[in-house]
Automatic annotation (TrEMBL):
NCBIfam families: HAD-SF-IIA. This is HAD-IIA family hydrolase. InterPro entries: HAD-like_sf, HAD-SF_hydro_IIA, HAD_sf, TPR-like_helical_dom_sf. Transmembrane segments: none annotated. Residues 1-83 are annotated as: Disordered. Residues 21-50 have a biased composition (Gly residues). Residues 1-11 have a biased composition (Low complexity). It comes from Gordonia defluvii.
């Protein structure tokens, strides 16, 4: 049984028939979202500490519940309590034996009927609930059964009740999708982007991305659905239920976005991944091949993405449940050898402005689509002692109160950073600056008692931040510090690193303000704090807590400081700025003026893919569509391997949108790091050819 068969079309109508009764990419065996070992339901439960897990019902109550209710569905004689998964049976031991056996038999029937008769399966689930309403796994089973029967309100109520009893976040994808079933996609998006969703495991996060993409399609936002799914691991060649469903959902989103050829590619990938014949991907390919371009095929757009598809049998009646394989996460290092874009190259590249030919001035700019802009500094706004070309002008067009300067560099205090920005021509005040030194000091304060001594490896500014949070800075391990904080300083030497190693070896908590291995400057890439941290890690065999990007503390502090609900993170590094934005669940703009190159972007893993890409900060003041990787760009990429050509589909195709178009189409194909390293892209459009040459791929 799969959610893909029962997810709602407009008006809440189940649309399972469109896939011939097969799953829309559903999990097999015990692959219910969040299933743990042996298919045990999730929820962070631990022995007797689970809320509600050991609240015994009275004997009279158990005896009453053990008797057959008049509305109970019949139980076949061949159904035995022992057929139930042992892990689930253990959850029933608070009931007396007769009642537990009745509940177990109904739960077994839920699993048996899940696919062939979801309505009758729900009746058995309700019968189990009538006898054991305080058992979390029973409420969860009722919620999942109601979900598959298309009873969205009942499913939502039961899943919420199960989550209250079991704890944890693993049921959130189902809860969010029930909101879609009730015609509330906006609420589904709120859940998908909420704080609780950020703690999801890799498997459950994939489920939530598919639900989020479906909600985007419900709202008619096909391009955003495409971008949402690009945060997952779309590497072709994977097989199994997770890859099948992801590829299928991505194909549907691409089709809804008008990208028919790309959609056919991903339906092929889905068909190849579908070793268990869970989807109709092959049929969809035939439909697309047989229908002329421009004609709709398959389901309506609002129901294009197959949503989360848990198997009730994993929760209840599977004798030998399978455990879903974790979604692979690939995190190749971004090359540190990328040269900083020189002023000459930047000056030669077309810079976007709000006044783009052929685009009405009423079209909102990228920055106007967000309530705050969180700007990285080194490599994004400036390089050492000079601003990045065009940066001063671009930032000047942003509302002052919506701008925050967010830096991993812990060597300066906010007032010093603001003064440096003003010297370079920017308008900045100390309260607009959020540094990793501040985030690091707060992180240390959360780890040790107030008044503790902390060894500081870094500048006096970092030591001052430690003092600001009620801790006592020192430079010597002989003072028995409770913690070590390490941030960038040009004066850090062997002696300072050795003091840190001694303190960490003695048991001190270790916090690094950031782990950037390099630091952009006007001369090129210099040694960054991450390289110094690596030296201490090598000596101590320890790993630090991290405050700066891509870890969450710094960006969360920045978002809180501006009070933003929909911020845009802007930076030049995939491994810090963009990965951090994805980790905190917000959109991002990568500018190609610092560390990460276009080649890096083309081979970027899912966790490091930006939603927007621009050559410079001028992208902020241009229409958002020009930089959106998932946008409908008027460019087509042809060729294969490391030799590609990009051509305009129309005379009015904007050269600035050629870069995100190239990135989107290469991501759809999949490109290895080696292919990206050898890549050459040509174009008959002279402006685009110059742009590609300036970015090192022409």
């Amino acid at each position: 049984m799969s959610a893909g068969d029962s997810r709602p079309a407009r008006g809440g109508r189940p649309d399972g028939d469109r896939q011939g009764g097969r799953s829309g990419g559903g999990r097999s065996g015990g692959g219910r979202p969040g299933s743990g070992a042996a298919g045990r339901p999730p929820g962070g439960r631990s022995g007797d500490g689970r809320p509600g897990a050991r609240r015994p019902a009275g004997n009279a109550e158990n005896a009453s519940r053990a008797r057959k209710h008049p509305d109970d569905p019949a139980l076949p004689d061949d159904i035995a309590p022992a057929d139930l998964d042992p892990a689930v049976r253990r959850d029933l031991r608070t009931l007396d034996k007769a009642n537990a056996d009745a509940v177990a038999r109904h739960l077994v029937m839920v699993g048996r009927l899940a696919d062939e008769d979801p309505v009758l399966a729900l009746s058995h689930a309700r019968a189990a609930r009538n006898r054991a309403s305080r058992i979390g796994v029973v409420r969860e089973t009722v919620g999942i059964a109601a979900y598959h029967a298309g009873e969205w309100q009942e499913a939502l109520s039961e899943l919420r009740a199960a989550r209250r009893i079991l704890g944890g976040s693993a049921l959130l994808p189902l809860i969010a999708d029930c909101e879609r079933g009730l015609g509330r996609p906006e609420r589904a998006l709120e859940i998908a982007r909420g704080d609780d969703a950020r703690s999801l495991t890799a498997d459950d996060r994939l489920e939530m991305l598919i639900v989020e993409a479906g909600a985007r399609l419900d709202l008619g936002e096909a391009d955003k659905a495409v971008v949402t799914l690009q945060a997952a691991d779309l590497a072709p060649g994977q097989t199994g239920p997770e890859a099948t469903r992801l590829f299928y959902a991505y194909a549907e989103a691409l089709l809804a976005a008008g990208r028919r050829d790309d959609a056919m590619t991903w339906f092929m990938n889905a068909a190849s991944a579908d070793v268990d014949d869970l989807t109709d991907a092959e049929l969809r390919l035939v439909e697309l091949a047989d229908s002329p371009p421009g004609l709709p095929t398959g389901p309506e757009v609002s129901s294009a993405v197959a949503v989360v598809s848990p198997e009730v049998s994993a929760a209840v009646a599977v004798v030998s449940p399978e455990v879903s394989a974790a979604v692979p996460v690939v995190s190749p290092e971004v090359s540190a050898a990328v040269a900083v874009v020189s002023p000459e190259v930047s000056a030669a590249v077309p810079v976007a402005s709000a006044a783009v030919p052929g685009v009405p001035s009423t079209v909102p700019t990228l920055a106007e689509e967000f309530d705050a802009v969180l700007l990285d500094l080194d490599g994004t706004v400036f390089a050492g002692h000079r601003p990045i070309p065009g940066a001063v002008e671009a930032v000047a067009e942003l509302p002052h109160e919506t701008v925050r300067y967010v830096t991993n560099n812990a060597s300066r205090r906010p007032a010093q950073v603001a003064a440096h920005l003003c010297e370079l021509g920017f308008s900045a005040t100390p309260d607009q600056v959020v540094t990793s030194a501040q985030a690091g000091a707060r992180l240390v304060a959360q780890q040790v008692p107030a008044g503790s001594t902390v060894l500081v490896v870094g500048t006096d500014g970092l030591a001052a931040e430690i003092g600001e949070v009620g801790l006592v800075p020192t430079r010597s391990a002989d003072d028995a510090p409770r913690a070590v904080i390490q941030g960038h300083s040009p004066q850090t030497d062997w002696a300072a690193l050795s003091e840190a190693a001694l303190a960490i070896a003695a048991g001190a908590v270790w916090v690094a303000t950031n782990v950037d291995t390099t630091l952009p400057s006007e001369r090129g890439l210099l040694v960054g704090n991450g390289s110094m941290v690596a030296a201490v890690a090598s000596a101590t065999k320890a790993s630090p807590l991290i405050a700066g990007k891509p870890a969450l503390p710094l960006l969360r502090d920045a978002i809180a400081s501006v009070g933003a609900a929909n911020p845009l993170v802007v930076g030049d590094r995939l491994d810090t700025d963009i990965e951090g934005a994805n980790a905190v669940g917000v959109d991002s703009l990568l500018v190609l003026t610092g560390v990460s190159s276009l080649r890096d972007v083309l081979a970027a893993p899912a966790a490091r893919r930006p939603t927007h890409i621009g050559v410079t900060l001028g992208a902020l003041t241009a229409p958002a569509a020009l930089s959106a990787v998932g946008g409908r760009h008027r460019w087509t990429v042809t060729g294969r391997g490391s030799s590609l050509t990009i051509a305009a589909d129309s005379d009015d195709a904007d050269p600035l949108s050629a870069i995100p178009a190239l990135v989107a189409q290469v991501w759809a194909r999949g490109m290895s790091a080696q292919e990206a390293a050898d890549l050459t892209v040509t174009s008959a459009n002279s402006a685009v050819a110059d742009l590609l040459g300036g970015l090192g791929v022409g």
